[in-house]
Design goal:
The N and C termini lie far apart (about 100 Å). The protein folds into three domains: about 90 residues, no CATH class; about 70 residues, no CATH class; about 210 residues, Ribonuclease H-like superfamily/Ribonuclease H (Nucleotidyltransferase, domain 5). The protein has about 500 residues and is an alpha+beta fold. The longest helix is centred in the last third of the chain and has 28 residues. The protein contains twelve helices and 13 strands.
Length: about 500
């Protein structure tokens, strides 16, 4: 009996220890790993993008004539113009800012002061000096406390709105995460992002034309060389990654063709102008998982950025963009190219990127522009180590796009930078074409990623480049004829 009691006592003590450990884990160590944007550390709040605000619109689709007709039908009440005992001194051009009623339905509401007008139709009060509240089209409110957002800063492409309510639940929860030492310091709270912030873009990136055809193209009439020399230039320059001068030297040493490096550059520019519409408009039949990243290049010695979006299943580059700044606009334009053949995102769609906030902002803008058809979340893979469950699971996709960056950098390095942004665009368009249609990939058993029927029976690479130029010209002609048809189509009047 003593042994049994002793063992029961030990079991009871172990049970208490287990309960204590479970309580400790539940209180201080989360059992479910958080994604990066839900991190408890206030140091990373500046990388977090808040959800969209509440938008209260003041735009009215009805006017004074609709109100008069409604009163007559509903209440059998006829609203007549104001009966005046003396000559009307209301300005002739004055209208009600609410219902747009003319001056016949307006009267002074403050006697001899004559500073406030009353509309007889909608009973609105307003001043002649300014429209006041009627000048606002909409009001932005905080989704947490419903307070109106305050206009704080003006940036190049957006306006920063901020919730300054000290009793906002979002602000109070973030304030709890800040250490007491920082709070006691002067301007200690300013180190962290505590208030709700919304960025309102003042430029519509969805109306920018990303598929415009070139206005001025170089001629394909060869005065000194033929199209085969052009194919050789593209093969040495793009496929083998040689510089312009080494390409010219290789043509002279191997083929006995004396050509200048500037002529090689002209051939590459002409080919890029012809091929780019075909590459951009090709239907890659993308899957459900996209991965994106940005890397830097040098343009005139100044840092520029390249945005890549890759189909994680087929490994094709479906979106790309060169920009002088690492901004949200370029990210949106690259996403538009990647989503060009989607009318609606497939179920289970996933977009994988790093912790840069531009991707989350771009996803918000797609939601605002297209609604639930293009509603998607950004899966963020943070850092170089798998500190959370999300990074550990989706790390291979991030490594995939990083490997693409290194592959491009290997071909970019011999150029030592570009002289202008146009040269960078032409070079990138040719390289993306080579990567998607001509380059054998180990992933695909040393076959190309996208097989084109017209290229199967061409045995050499210069001939394939010539065929791609022909396909690009065909794409340009088809788009031009489509645009001419749309312009010539008569308008249908209701």
């Amino acid at each position: 009996m003593n042994i049994i009691l002793y063992l029961l006592n030990i079991i009871q003590q172990l049970y208490k220890q287990n309960c204590f450990l479970i309580q400790f884990l539940c209180k201080y160590i989360p059992l479910k790993q958080w994604a990066f944007d839900d991190s408890h550390s206030p140091k990373y709040q500046k990388f977090k993008i808040d959800k969209l605000p509440k938008i209260i619109s003041f735009k009215q689709e009805w006017n004074w004539t609709d109100l008069i007709a409604y009163y007559k039908k509903r209440y059998n009440k006829i609203i007549k113009p104001v009966f005046r005992h003396r000559e009307c001194d209301v300005p002739t051009g004055c209208t009600c800012p609410q219902c747009k009623a003319p001056y016949h339905y307006l009267m002074w509401n403050d006697g001899k002061k004559k500073s406030q007008l009353l509309c007889k139709v909608c009973q609105s009060l307003f001043s002649t000096a300014s429209k006041g509240r009627f000048s606002k089209i909409y009001v932005l409110r905080c989704p947490h406390c419903n307070n109106a957002l305050v206009h704080k800063k003006d940036r190049k492409h957006f306006i920063v709105h901020k919730c300054v309510n000290p009793k906002c639940s979002y602000y109070l929860n973030n304030l709890k995460k800040v250490s007491k030492k920082d709070i006691e310091e002067d301007y200690g709270k300013n180190k962290y992002k505590l208030h709700y912030i919304y960025r309102e873009f003042n430029i519509n990136f969805f109306t920018i034309d990303i598929k415009s055809l070139p206005k001025n193209t170089s001629s394909l009439k060869f005065s000194k060389f033929d199209k085969n020399v052009m194919g050789l230039c593209l093969t040495y320059k793009i496929n083998l990654g040689l510089s312009l001068r080494k390409t010219a030297q290789a043509l002279n040493d191997i083929h006995g063709i004396s050509i200048s490096h500037q002529q090689v550059a002209n051939y590459c520019k002409t080919a890029a102008i012809c091929i780019k519409p075909f590459t951009d408009n090709y239907d890659y039949r993308s899957g459900k998982v996209f991965t994106a990243d940005e890397t830097y290049i040098k343009v005139k010695g100044i840092r520029g950025y390249i945005w890549f979006i890759m189909d994680a299943v087929k490994r094709s580059i479906i979106g790309y963009r060169i920009s002088c700044e690492r901004d949200v606009g370029s990210c949106i334009l690259a996403m538009r190219m990647a989503f060009a053949h989607f009318k609606k995102l497939p179920e289970g769609f996933r977009f994988i990127a790093d912790g840069y906030s531009a991707y989350v902002l771009a996803a918000q803008q797609f939601l605002r522009e297209f609604g639930d058809n293009f509603k998607f979340d950004i899966t963020q893979v943070i850092g170089l180590t798998n500190d959370d469950a999300v990074s550990a699971k989706f790390r291979p996709y991030k490594q995939m796009i990083e490997r693409l960056n290194r592959t491009y950098k290997a071909s970019y390095r011999p150029t030592n930078g570009f002289n202008n942004i146009d040269g960078a665009n032409y070079d990138l368009a040719l390289w993306v074409t080579y990567y998607n249609f001509l380059r054998p990939h180990k992933f695909n058993r040393y076959k190309v990623l996208n097989e084109i029927e017209d290229l199967k029976y061409i045995s050499n690479m210069p001939g394939k480049w010539q065929m791609l130029i022909a396909l690009g010209q065909q794409t340009i002609l088809e788009r031009q004829s489509r645009l001419l048809f749309l312009d010539s189509e008569p308008e249908v009047k209701a």
